[in-house]
Amino acid sequence: MDAAQMKTQIRISAISAAARLCGRFYVPAAVSNRHIHLSEKDVQTLFGRGYVLAQSKPLLQHGQYACHETLILIGKKGSIEKIRVLGPLRAQTQVELSLTDCFKTGVEPVIRMSGELAGTPGARLIGPAGEVELAGGVIVAARHIHASTSQAHMLGICDRDVVCLERHGQRAMRMDNVAVRVQDDFELELHIDTDEANAGMIVNGDLLEIVR
Known about the structure:
Distance between the termini: 34 Å
Strand content: 35-45%
Number of strands: 15
Shape: globular
Largest sheet: 9 strands, mixed
């Protein structure tokens, strides 16, 4: 078990203790910066035939990892450089931006859950070996909670629930419409983007309370 995994287990133990002792239910935050999930076809176009993405570091969710590779995104009004690629490969390329990123690039901001790409706007991706013009697949990711089956049971939440969270402190705020996704190999995390995190002065690992 590495240091990050150990910290996660300690945090989950503390959340479990709080639930048992005082009936308060918390979720740790994970702040997600802009990133790209690529299809195999688009990897070959952007980086060259036969190219294999290079894993940089694992993420908390099982099988997910950050890659060494980055790309440039160009919208109607502007561009963003060095957008990190995440693995593993997807059936369809998906770009996740913040609202601020959308305003900068001129991409229409459409809030969706990951994988729900029908009717979403596109953009142009530029890599070291080529370019891809996406007809769709650019989203602002809807805030959501990942939880394993046992963690969801501990918190009294179920797959496809929609819950409210409160951030306590100097920049206290309430987040409504937080989707819940439960799967046996998930780890407990609230995924929010940088705009949402900045609004509440939230950093990775901060706890938000589920509002009953």
